[in-house]
Amino acid sequence: MNVAGLPAILQGNGVPGDKATNARLIGSKFAQYGYDAIHVQEDFNYHAHLYATDNHPYRTATSGGVPFGDGLNTLSKYDWVAFRRIKWDQCSIGSGDCLTPKGFTFMRLALSGSSDSTTAVYIDLYNIHTDAGVEAGDIAARQSNINQVAAYIAAWSAGNAVVIFGDANSRYSRTGDTAVRSLLAGGFTDAWVQLQRGGVVPTAESLCANPSTVHTCETVDKILYRSSPLVTLRATAFRYESSRFLQANGSVLSDHNPVYADFTWSAGALLRQSALFGADYGTWFSDVAVLAGKTSATRKPKPATLTFRGASRLDSVGLALSDGTALTHGGSGGTAASLALGASEYWVEARLCKGEKDGKTRVFYIRAATSAGRSLAAGTATASCATFVAPQGWQIVGFVGQAGDEVDQLAFVYAPR
């Protein structure tokens, strides 16, 4: 929901009433209706009022009012393991979008997990607020904005399920807004197109009233999603929540219709993962895409060799599959140690330990245990450790996480034996 939180002196948004009062009412409705995850845009100078009446346990801290903040925040029932704010590379001066550091946010939402962290489900959420306006400079900036998000997703959400929801300032019916349509070509599904338009992307303009009493008209606010081999997402409902966000006299609370989608999810049938262990440093890596291409009801990847490097900390992790495919992540420091697995021997358990180096949390130690009772270790154990056990009938076949010269964060990918 774009909450129209620009200072009243700069932008009235055509919304009746006092903005602080409206923000408090919006927050109370967020709490009343109990949404699982909410992205807000234009949450600038009335942020404290919005949060004062909301009760979600996990909420991002404001980045500030105008002109310091980006106006993007998230309120959620679920915690996350990573959160970042990214400023747009390009903005249009003509529409005033350069007056604040607009951009997008990224978070890796911890949707589900076992009590012992052996299995976990994450969804990458992106909150966007692109350049507004319809002049040539606005459209060019907006194209750049969406392409920037797409590039970030390709790098930082590889192998993961993703939901993008926010103020895209884009219409499929606007000929200049080609970037939003490129997301559809790139594997994303628009929940509105899917459920309200029968899967047909509109070419003719159909503007929404505010509040909207129909759900087939198009707003600039979008919800797009994709699944991954680790988790399947399916949108089951889409609607404009306009009737739920009204003042007592029937006036709107924002110049945008709130946009809602409901999803079901299921863990992967052939690939799953453990909880992430470590911290949000280094560059994201994922073996999921490679493993998905080698996994089916009749094809099951199996490690033939494990190779770890470590000394005072864990420098790298790697394995070679039985078909020769090598999966290695991290740096070249430390001492290498390898273990060749037998034809009927599986990697079934891993223990990780973490510690602090230069003020940052890193993975210090790994120990792998096989179904034959053999083990391989690297690095230095600490007092802060966790053990990950493959589900019954499954095995560890790869990795996801973040690394640079050393391993900063790690999780394990499972596949059936």
Automatic annotation (TrEMBL):
Top-level taxon of origin: Eukaryota
Gene Ontology biological-process annotations: phosphatidylinositol dephosphorylation
InterPro entries according to UniProt: Endo/exonu/phosph_ase_sf, IPPc, Jacalin-like_lectin_dom, Jacalin-like_lectin_dom_sf, Sph/SMPD2-like
GO cellular component terms given for this protein: cytoplasm
Example GO molecular function: phosphatase activity
Domain Jacalin-type lectin: from-to ranges: 282-416
Protein name, UniProt field: Jacalin-type lectin domain-containing protein
Organism: Parathielavia hyrcaniae
